[in-house]
Structures are given as structure tokens and as C-alpha cells.
Specification:
By secondary structure, the protein is an alpha/beta fold. The protein contains eleven helices and ten strands.
Amino acid sequence: MILMAVESSCDETAVALVEDGRTVLADCIASQVALHRIYGGVVPEIASRKHVEAVCGLADQALKEAGLRRAQIDAVAVTYAPGLIGAVLVGVNFAKGAALALGKPLVPVHHIRGHIAANYLADPELKPPFLALVVSGGHTLIADVKDYTDLEILGSTRDDAAGECFDKVARVLDMPYPGGAALDRTAQGGDPEKYPMPDSVVAGSELDMSFSGLKTAAINRIHNAQQKGEELDVPSLCAGFSKAVCRTLVPRTLRALELTGRKTLAVAGGVAANSVIRAAFTEETAKRGVKLCMPPLSLCGDNAAMIGAQGYYEYLAGNIADQSLNGYATMDVCDRRF
């Protein structure tokens, strides 16, 4: 079964062709990073307009790269939540039009479910049940993946997402957008113990997380140095900040593994590309005999291939929408609105 998948939840327009949820036939992405870099972050209106300009051409490009005809598409999958609402609606409306024109089923996919499904493309042997940690610019959560379309949230951030904190600290340090990647590169060779960073505990919920205090502590450290005219060891600050994020993510994820008895962990989302986080989970899972799945860096960020992977399993579960499908800026990963 071949799905055409569309992703436009933020600043990447992407169209992919995926076979049986595991094989990527084509994955075409139009990045807007250079455009938004001058603003230091994503401008939603500009992002939406660029999606409109790019999506049709990407669909044709994907078909050409895969050597397929439109008639060979069996279904159309699309990110319908969450994301920048204008951007999401571009993808949703294109997918609705494509499904209608082709006479094929329309499959709505939650963006976070897509990030988890990126691991199905990276590891053909991965099957539920397993534990998943999703770490991105807008979401940080631990989920028990009981089946391909049956998830239970065990813990999540109470305030900022980890990726958002990376980006905001990087912006205060005048690093180029996307800040999280720049901060990770700068942290290489820094001393993570030079600038102590706080840890957070959410009372009454051992698997929930909080990053706002850590973000504030890092930004205050930067501002204090600037105000006093002191030289800041930026690589060490970045290394210490990255390590502090790990001290929040790793113990809670390991505890969730203990509570659920799962022996497989999948890490997903844009922040899963962070070298410190990848190294920490590689080390800790190896100690415990837990199988670790992490997508290659190319599948950590937003892409349509992951939407096609999850879309296949949503289709098998009967999660099909009609032409009344809407897009949503926010939605719990366990929710459905179609």
C-alpha cells in the first residue's frame, strides 16, 4: 500500500511517498530555515504563504523521484494537528483536495504520533509495545505505545518543552536559528560542571517534567555576565545546560521503563538529534539491557515520511476522515477530532 503524506505544521513543507508504513519511496522537503533566520524564529504568516507556494511542486517531485503515477497512490495522509494553525491548514486542504481528486481515503495523523513512527522507518523490526520519549520544540512527553494507534501518556512537561528552552537560550546567546542545533554544536568541548544548573521536581508526579526554571536560570546567568561585563564561557554554559536537560529527561524515562516493564525505548522529535541526549540514552539503556531506537538525524526533524509511516497504521485501524476534516493548533496525542 502506497501513501502520499503531507506535513506542514511549522516551517518545513514536506511530501513523501511511503509503502506499507516502513519503506520510504520519496521524501521531499522545502525548508524555510534561511527565510526565518533573519527574524530569529518562525513567522507564522510567512510560513503559511511559503507552504502554499511549495506543496504542489513537492507532490509532483515526490512522484517523479519514486517513479510512480498518481493512480498508484492508495491513500493520502496528512498532519492535521498540532502546529501553527495557518500552516497546518495548508497541508490539510491540499490533502483533502488530493484525496478528493484521486478518489482515495484521507488519513489524519497527529504530528507527535508521526515523530514516534519515524522509528518504524529507522528500525524495520520495531513493533509495539514499547516506551517512547518525544522531545521537540513544542512537546516533551513519555508515552506507553501499547499498539500502533493506542498510546497512553505517562508523563509530560508542565510548562516549556525542552526544545523550546534550547531555542530560547540559544537566541539570548545570539546564535543563528534554529538555535537548538547551534547550541549543541557550541557545547562540544565545554565543561558541563562550570556553571551549575538547577534540577526540577514536580510534586506528586514523578514522571512529569518542568523546564521553565532551568531556562530562566540559564538566561539569568547570561544576562548577569553581560551586565557585569564578565566574559562568559559560552561552550561550558551550553554544555551545562544540555546536561541539565538530560538530568530531567533520562531518569524519568528510565523510571517509566521500570514501571511499565518495557524493554524497548524509542526516542523521537527534533531534540532527539541533540548529541548529549543521544549519548546519554545510549549509555543508560546499554547498562540496563534495553533496546534503544533513535531515528537518523534526517528523520528527527519534521518530515512527511514519518506521517506516511503512522498514516499506514491509522488507515489499518480505520481512522479515515471525510472532507469536513479540519486542522487544529493544539491537540492531545491521544485525542481524535474527525
